[in-house]
Amino acid sequence: MRTGVFTTFILKCNQNAAPGIPFLMRHFNRLAGDAQSIGLPTKLEGIAELTTNLRKLLATAQPEVNCDLRIKVILSPAGLEFTITPLNRRWQKPGGISLKVFNGTRPKANIKHSDLSVSEAASQAAAHAQAEEALLVDKHDLVREGAWSNIFWFDRTGTLYTNRKQALPGIIQSVIIEQTAAIDTEITLADLVNLASEVFITNAVELVVPVRQLLTESGCYNFLPGPLTRKIQELVHAQALIEEYLLET
User: Fold this and answer.
1) Please, are residues 167 and 145 in contact by the beta-carbon 8 Å criterion?
2) 189 SS3 class
3) Cα torsion through 90, 118, 207, 230, rounded to 10
4) How far apart (Å, rounded) are the C-alpha atoms in residues 195 and 189?
5) How confident is the prediction for the chain on average, in pLDDT?
6) Pairing, β 207-216 against β 196-203
7) Number of neighbours of residue 195 by Cβ within 10 angstroms
8) First to last CA, the chain
9) Are 126 and 99 spatial neighbours (Cβ–Cβ below 8 Å)?
10) Is 157 left (phi over 0), alpha (psi -120 to 50) or beta?
11) pLDDT tens per residue across span 167-190
């Protein structure tokens, strides 16, 4: 991949309606902001440039009707690039998923940058442990984010927390923070396993995913996906409909 920034989102293909992209404006704003923050000479001339190019690409790709798609948009010095694949929500499993602790953090953690070396290494370690996602923990034992996600947790009083320091400002993370009283705080791995009652992760493709198990060097810790996480799932699904951009032809 060329040096640049990217974002990934869902395109919902509907037989009787225009394709829809949840949270597209949020994706555009982050992509443009990330490009500016690293000094990319290429700039987006408004969201119309993004959607016009996407319409042209979809017209030639001719996706199957009713087939939701995963779209990756890369902005580099060469301009805009799109990768379109059928949507495969690999984390949607009954009872939640497993996280494997990985010691390391992403470079330029607050930007969705094309340097994926840490995320890919963490994912490989997770797969080797038969976990679906990795949890990045820094040298001070502070929990930062997932390899491809943000992390949230409820304590035993029902208070919701997340971490935004040295972590990507996620699209779904921002939605939840705006719609709830979620508290931005740092937490050590030791405190997470001792204090959390429910844990879930978020990203723009999988949305809200319950965590049932955390694999660490010291052992395996189990969580029970519960009603608090289900309420967050319902909230995000409702907001996705509100913030859906219809890609009219």
Assistant:
1) yes
2) helix
3) 90
4) 10
5) 93
6) antiparallel
7) 15
8) 30
9) yes
10) alpha
11) 999 999 999 999 999 999 999 999
